[in-house]
Every structure is written in C-alpha cells, then in structure tokens.
Amino acid sequence: MLVTPPRARPQSRAWAVVVAVLALLLVSLSCARPASAAVPGDAWVRAAHLVPGLGAMEVTARPAAGGDPVVLAASAAYGDVAPYQRLTPGDYTVELRPAGAALTTTPVLSSTFSATSGAAYTLAGLGSLQSPRLATLQDDLTPPAPGTVSVRLLPAASSAAAVTVQAANGPVLAQDAVFGQPTRYASVPAGKWTLQASAEGLAAASTDVDLTAGGIYTLAVVDRDGGLGVQVVTDAAGAATMPVGGAQTGGGGTASGGVGSTSWVPGREVAAGLAAFLVVGGLGLLARRRATVSHAS
C-alpha cells in the first residue's frame, strides 16, 4: 500500500516565519549603534569664561555654511568651563553676548575657528576686562604615559601678572605663567596632591586634588576672595581619552559634568537576549514537530 507522506502542517510554516523574523531582529539589534554614541568625525568643543569682571555670557558657534548657531554656554559666569559638545567639522564664528541678549545684537567678542574631525577645543574668553579676547585652544587628549597625567594651566587671575603652581613636596606644574597665556600640557605623576598657587604680592592658595592615572586636566587659576583660587577641570579620563568634563563655578567652587562617549542602552540588550531566547526555543520546537511528523510517516 502506497502511503503519501503528510504535508507540513500550517503551524510548522508559521513557526518557520516567526523564527526567520526573530533572527532578523537579533541581527539588527546586534548591529545597531547605541543612541548616544559619538558620530564618527565629530569635533569636541567647549566654552570657558575666564575674563575677570565680565558678566555672565552666552557663547554660541555660528556655522559659516549657514544654519542655526550652536549654544555652547547659555549663561557662563567668570570661572565657568562648560562641558564638551559634539560639533560638526567646519568653519564657525564664535560670539559672546550678555546672557539673555538676542542673537541679533552685536556680540561683545567674536572670533572664527575651524573644527577638525576628531579634535577637541576650548574656546576661551581670556585677558582683562579692558582688553578681552577669544582664544581657540586645541586640547591635546593624547593618552599620557602609564602612571602619569597631563596637566596645563590657564592663568586667569587679574591680580597676578604671573603665577606658579607647584604640588607640595612634588613637581612644579607651571612656573611664572603669564596672565591670560595658557601653558602647554605637562606630564606629572598621578596621585593625590596639594597644589599651591603663588604670585608676587599675594598669599599662596592651596587645593587638594586627586589626579587619576591616565587623566588629562586643565587648572584654571582665578581671582577668589581677594587672592587666588585653583579650579581643576577634567578634560579626559582613562585610556579612552574621550572628553568628559567642565567646571561651572560662577567664581566659586568647582563642579563637574560632561559628555559621555557611549551610553549603555538597557532595552537594546534585553531585546537582543529575548530575541535569542525565542529563536532558540522556536528552532527546538520546530525540530520536535518535524521529528514527530517523520515518526508518524
């Protein structure tokens, strides 16, 4: 007697479709980039207000190619260093206006700069109230040698024509740095230090810092309570050397904040795990159904 093999059941075909769809979902999830990942080719830019006596400023970068200006700091007071922001490479006009002023008003200061892919910049208002200027500082985020950090100084205290910063019982970070003239990055042993800032005719100021190995830092020396103050700004931390920090001080203490390089997206991993579970389970069920059909034949 001729026995006709049974046809595949509709449930089996349906499971095959489900498995195929879930497999595609798993592939797409595994290839997706996290929502906050850095766009390849972006530049990193931040603003710093280091002009003593100048009020709170809004700092914007206007693309030369057209489009809306990018607000780098909405209301930066003296001593503030804003967190880094991603900026599309190209030419820009940087403008400083009193906080809250319309963008159509004449800026207090303006300058042009070119943002290069992968580079990091600090757009700093420097100098005295009588002679302020905008400077484009390129931030060197090259990873320092093991066990060390990279440190530079931004002398922004109008009460000091030149300032020296030294770690107690440790290295000199900057010697006679001239007001308004940023220093180069220097290599310094990592660790906990008491930094002392001194200038002729002024009492020395000290601050305790913890400079983590692999970090890159900027020290801003500012006017504070009739003397000097030292603010520590983290430019980058660890081997990744992605820009991370800023200080918003308003002439007072320091605070940190910044932009992360890549954020973990919980839903992405959960969905990928669920898809994998369903794919494996679906394949197992489909195999069992096929085994049953084969046995029946």
From TrEMBL:
The keyword Signal applies. The chain crosses the membrane at residues 270-287. Residues 1-37 form the signal peptide. Keywords: Membrane, Signal, Transmembrane, Transmembrane helix. Residues 43-165 form the DUF4397 domain. This is Uncharacterized protein DUF4397. It comes from Kineococcus rhizosphaerae.
